[in-house]
Amino acid sequence: xxxxxxxxxxxxxxxxxxxxxxxxxxxxxxxxxxxxxxxxxxxxxxxxxxxxxxxxxxxxxxxxxxxxxxxxxxxxxxxxxxxxxxxxxxxxxxxxxxxxxxxxxxxxxxxxxxxxxxxxxxxxxxxxxxxxxxxxxxxxxxxxxxxxxxxxxxxxxxxxxxxxxxxxxxxxxxxxxxxxxxxxxxxxxxxxxxxxxxxxxxxxxxxxxxxxxxxxxxxxxxxxxxxxxxxxxxxxxxxxxxxxxxxxxxxxxxxxxxxxxxxxxxxxxxxxxxxxxxxxxxxxxxxxxxxxxxxxxxxxxxxxxxxxxxxxxxxxxxxxxxxxxxxxxxxxxxxxxxxxxxxxxxxxxxxxxxxxxxxxxxxxxxxxxxxxxxxxxxxxxxxxxxxxxxxxxxxxxxxxxxxxxxxxxxxxxxxxxxxxxxxxxxxxxxxxxxxxxxxxxxxxxxxxxxxxxxxxxxxxxxxxx
Amino acid sequence: xxxxxxxxxxxxxxxxxxxxxxxxxxxxxxxxxxxxxxxxxxxxxxxxxxxxxxxxxxxxxxxxxxxxxxxxxxxxxxxxxxxxxxxxxxxxxxxxxxxxxxxxxxxxxxxxxxxxxxxxxxxxxxxxxx
Lengths: 465, 130
Description:
- The complex is a heterodimer.
- Chain A is an alpha+beta fold.
- Chain A has five helices and 26 strands.
- In chain A, the strands form six sheets. In chain A, strands 11, 12, 13, 16 and 17 form a five-stranded antiparallel beta sheet that branches. In chain A, strands 21, 22, 23, 25 and 26 form a five-stranded antiparallel beta sheet that branches. Chain A has a four-stranded antiparallel beta sheet with strand order 1-2-3-6, with no helix packed on it.
- In chain A, 37% of the residues are buried.
- By secondary structure, chain B is of the alpha+beta class.
- Chain B has one helix spanning 3-23, and strands at residues 32-38, 41-47, 53-62, 68-75, 80-81, 85-91, 94-102, 106-115, 121-129.
- In chain B, strands 1, 2, 3, 4, 5, 6, 7, 8 and 9 form a nine-stranded antiparallel beta sheet that branches.
- Classes of the chains: A alpha+beta, B alpha+beta.
């Protein structure tokens, strides 16, 4: 009797061991989060806010704020809210040196959250983001469950084979083992081709329910998640611009912008004389965005906003706005050739043709990613009159990227702290029509975003076309 | 005497429990309650198993009592807004909108508009109709 009970106890332990090992399947769910990088022009500061990935909840939430050259020191008040209720607050003290300043908050549950940044000036930036939940896909349940069951049935078959009056009875649990393995293998083989459910955030409006159980919506028949275009109303007030985004089909505020190239809205302003600013308005309410414009010129500015709504597709809206100010106009910039921008020497070469390649040669390999890219190039033209008026209606308006050389297997893109890129930044663009174009190249070095203005003359005929 | 049998029965019970846990239907038709804050109002919105056709939404408002509560459905992917439906007050701070037609499945956005002494406010609740 003693040996019998010992053997049974051993088996019980073995089965429990298998069952518990199966339980760890939860930890093997697909990687569900990554860092969120988002540029914010908050007051006079150009900041990059990095919301670090969260894997389990409740959990500390680390928010890094990257400052740039010229960012004033001060304190940012951070808060996170779910369901409109603030659950955690923290301060980030920005120093005088550009760099990364950390803040620590806490998130208690998965689902949609809102991070707010308050610099004490009256404008509070809010950033919607999603805290992902650990989700075990159904195929994974079938696979792990199937293998656990197969193990149990195998043990059962052994016991029955040894103990039962007729050895043939062992075939019953053995059949169970075969069936369980079939379930497990089918689940594993189908896993590669099983389409993921519609993603909360990028395709569906995120709610606590669909973040924690996305597979509940796997049967949704929608094939096109895209949404109508936006209308943009620009208003000049209080030393800056207020943007109102409304849905082009319903007139309601557009409050479903996705983070695209590290910003909710990329706002490009061209001053009357041709200064370019690439700003990132902060969200101040549903469909409402606000940006400060430092030291404006008097006259008509071109306003171009690039954004992505839930469902996908980048949209570009162009408009103009009249500003008052005292800044002196800038002369028309040179074409190709060497120059010094904010203390950094750079040589610009333009290889004409179809397409045209424009390269900025820096002296050192210490460029930093900005907005997830090595460089940005804004093209507007052909321009004959005032850039601020003409760029808004120019036939060509382009935002060209020079990407960071990708590293195989690395999902998270490097943030601005990695100063290892360059020294050349190259853009290739096909100009649609001859004429004089204004271009602005942007790259970051030493936490300073360098903007290099230039002109490109695209000839009517010859090698340049 | 029959301890091994008892233990085996326990094992079998664990297996059955495990299989039941694995196969248990997840989230069968649960009520969806969401909450949002706008100005002085805290608004809770619940929809019992949203479906194609007529729906009933319950809105609970804490804060200053609103004079009127409107429910305005928008089919986000189609760019189609529907005429507002008045939510009728049931008790203090509790409103119910009945017969809100949602004619197709997909992503809906339900705007709840409040008017009253606390000022006007609008909050949007996403709703998925399957």
